[in-house]
Write a structure and sequence with these properties.
42 strands, iron, iron transport, membrane
């Protein structure tokens, strides 16, 4: 592949020029600070990020502290890493990840995603596990492109990897308390140290709450306000360090109580993607019940044995979740009788809930790796995965007193998968390193769904409707790294990724005449990705640059068609999808006390399927051509929730003051327009977004004590970030501006 064909050459020159121009002032800095090496585990071992032939962004603890100042959940990483977008129609409970445009907009609790989330070496498969709060972390690594060889489980788009701070023998910890607008409280802390000659431990905890900041203007409604939450999480780790054996044990739990995603009917001005005139984000008029309850907990054991020239790893994981999430999906049906504050005409009422009463995930990995000083090193292993889930779907009649139940369906699925994998690296010369790997995966699913109580607009009572899938695949990757000198590496990589078949059974929203009760299946998808780039430490390590070009093709991409006039969710396979672009990571000291980081990415995605058509909305202005049945032809459309441009910028400036340091820290994240659905329309296209944060703080006692003022979304930007494809223009919004003060101490 010739990388110059990936995107127009002028865009490559522009990106390179921007990077160089921003870094040039470093040449003139006098006695500037230098950047520490960034250690990552993207290849399942500790390496300098500059030596790894993968497009990676590592987010350190200080950045995570900045982004999470306002009590935000994991979605705060969205657009703050090149090519990364995160959104949710569940609020804090169910984040959906997209890397290089590849993701899954499916809102079913059985949905699989092509971006894998790995927390302390254990994959979090259920979408409800992926929102575990970020606290007491050493770093977050975002790996772009297929990672199927070493991580395996549904990684054709990439991996978001979290590493908790490990226990140490030295006693220490921290405590942090933030207070802010809307009665926000944000506490987190950790304490740890030695328990004996061989054992040490670390206890970490988080508590967050915020009052409702949206008022319900409908008299007598079940909820008086919305958007508040109460969340807590805890993690305890025990570390045993023997002469040739190490054991790291981890227990963790999360509890979330709050309101579900707030849907607002008819907030989009017809024929545009503007909010309707006079829109007030602090008021709604809803007649339905709204809440979100989630409890997850898990445990894992990471064991390591050191032999002569070999290291054996065992990683055992257990995760479980229980949840119930209920929302007024139509956005306020009963409020049509309030002309001053109601949402306008809504064709039909819809209030629903999804519950996960039973969930269990078990994983086991054994990995053997060489440990020698020779030119060739390798890893090989076995992986086993099992997940059992039960999903309850409910519908309610919000027009009847008490919002009684009017529909109930059950989904059950058993998913078992196993894999065998191997990878190796060879130092062909002092400057040239070759890497490659293979993974064989076998994935089986047994699915059954039935309608116990029929909803007025869904499938009638019936079932069970059964589906069995059995798929296997060989994923692989090959890469080369060439060291131009000790500070500059060139690399190229080609990789194949795979996602096993998916099954969808939202029967309460299925066509009454649909085959198999409305249960649909999408076949396996496969990705081939090409990537080439440069990683460099510049100007005596005062600047660090990463830049790459990429192109990928997806065969039989799994997509979900939702909504339309009958509000049906259907799994489909697109014949082919193509994506291409570039990514830039730059970090530089422009002066001794001024550190600037810049991230940028361009993603051009296109669905290529001449015959694929989906049901469009009835209340919006569709711009795609329609087939004879009135369905929208989506050939040539970009993927949903896939912005072409993502930029992020941060700057930290410190001033020595009174034996401490006064610092100013700001960050900005931009993403361009996005489609909310597979088809294109004027209304369901999210505007470009630019959100900024600010933190002004004072550090003293060698940085162990800190007080800071912070603001998130400081311009109070108001954007529609997602929609519900009913017969009305229902959308949901980004978080409003928050302000606060934070105190922190380390000991």
């Amino acid at each position: 592949m010739n990388p110059s064909h990936v995107i127009p050459a002028r865009r490559c020159r522009l990106a390179t020029a921007v990077a160089l121009l921003l870094a040039v002032p470093v040449l003139h800095a006098q006695e500037a600070s230098t950047l520490d090496a960034v250690q990552v585990t993207a290849q399942r071992k500790v390496e300098n990020i500059q030596d790894v032939p993968v497009s990676i962004t590592s987010v350190d603890a200080e950045k995570l502290e900045l982004y999470g100042s306002g009590g935000a959940d994991i979605r705060f990483l969205s657009a703050r890493v090149p090519s990364l977008n995160i959104e949710s129609s569940y609020g804090r409970a169910f984040p959906r990840f997209y890397i290089r445009g590849l993701g899954n907009t499916d809102f079913d609790l059985n949905a699989s995603q092509p971006v894998s989330l790995v927390y302390d070496e254990v994959v979090q498969e259920s979408p409800l596990l992926k929102g575990f709060p970020l606290f007491d972390l050493e770093r977050v690594e975002v790996l772009r492109g297929p990672q199927g060889t070493l991580f395996g489980r549904n990684t054709p788009a990439g991996v978001v990897k979290f590493e908790s701070v490990r226990p140490s023998r030295e006693f220490g910890g921290y405590a942090k308390l933030g207070l802010g607008s809307d009665e926000m409280v944000n506490f987190e802390g950790a304490v740890g140290g030695a328990l004996g000659q061989r054992w040490s431990a670390r206890l970490s905890a988080l508590y967050q709450r915020r009052d409702d900041w949206v008022d319900n203007t409908l008299d007598g409604a079940p909820n008086e306000g919305f958007e508040g939450y109460d969340e807590s999480a805890v993690r305890v780790q025990f570390l045993y360090e023997g002469d040739a054996f190490e054991a790291l044990l981890n227990l963790h739990r999360r509890d979330l109580n709050g309101t579900a995603r707030l849907f607002r009917a008819n907030i989009i001005q017809p024929g545009t993607n503007d909010l309707v005139p006079g829109f007030d984000r602090e008021k709604v008029s809803l007649d339905g019940v709204n809440f979100s309850d989630l409890e997850t907990w898990g445990a894992n054991a990471r064991l390591r044995w050191d032999f002569d020239g070999l290291v054996l790893h065992s990683i055992s994981g257990y995760e479980t979740a229980e949840s119930l999430n209920r929302g007024d999906i139509d956005g306020g049906y009963g409020a049509v009788f309030l002309p001053d504050s109601g949402p306008g005409v809504i064709p039909f009422a819809s209030e629903s809930a999804d519950g996960l009463p039973d969930h269990e995930q078990l994983t086991q990995e054994f990995r053997l790796e060489s440990d020698n000083d020779g030119p060739f090193n390798w890893q090989a292993g076995l992986f086993w995965f099992r997940e059992d889930i039960t999903i309850h779907g409910f519908n309610y009649d919000s027009l009847a007193p008490g919002n009684p139940q009017a529909g109930f369906a059950v989904q059950q699925q058993e998913n078992t998968a196993w894999a065998v994998f191997a990878s190796g690296e060879y130092d062909a010369t002092d400057r040239l390193k070759l890497r490659g790997g293979l993974r064989y995966t076998r994935d089986k699913k047994d699915f059954a769904a039935q309608v116990v109580e029929g909803a007025p607009f869904g499938a009638p009572v019936g079932g069970p409707y059964r589906v069995h899938t059995d798929a296997n695949d060989v994923s692989w990757d090959a890469s080369v790294v060439y060291a131009v000198d000790e500070d500059v590496n060139l690399y190229a990589r080609v990789a194949k990724g795979f996602r096993a078949p998916s099954i969808q059974g939202r029967l309460l929203f299925a066509d009454p005449g649909a085959p198999n009760g409305g249960v649909t299946t999408a076949d396996s998808e496969e990705v081939i990705s090409w990537e080439a780039g440069i990683k460099a430490d510049l100007w005596d390590r005062r600047a660090r640059l990463g830049f790459n070009l990429f192109r990928y093709t997806v065969d039989d991409q799994q997509i979900i068609a939702v909504g339309g006039g009958s509000n049906i969710a259907t799994l489909l396979n697109a014949d082919r999808t193509v994506g291409q672009g570039f990514e830039l990571d730059l970090e530089a000291y422009l002066a001794d006390q001024l550190l600037v980081t810049l991230g940028s990415s361009y993603n051009d995605t296109e669905i290529r399927d001449d015959t694929l058509a989906v049901a469009p909305c009835a209340a919006c202005t569709v711009t795609d051509p329609l087939d004879a049945s009135g369905r929208a032809l989506i050939d040539g459309n970009p993927l949903p929730q896939a912005p072409e441009w993502v930029h992020n910028l941060s700057a930290r400036y410190g001033v020595p003051l009174a034996g401490g340091e006064l610092y100013f820290l700001t960050d900005w994240a931009y993403r361009s327009e996005v489609n909310f659905f597979l088809y294109e329309s004027r209304e369901f296209r999210g505007k470009s977004s630019l959100e900024g944060g600010l933190r002004i703080g004072y550090l003293w006692n060698q940085g162990d004590q800190e007080v800071a003022l912070f603001g998130r979304n400081i311009t109070d930007q108001e954007r529609i970030v997602g929609a519900i494809d009913f017969n009305n223009l229902t959308g949901f919004l980004n978080e409003p501006r928050t302000w606060g003060v934070e105190f922190r101490t380390r000991f």
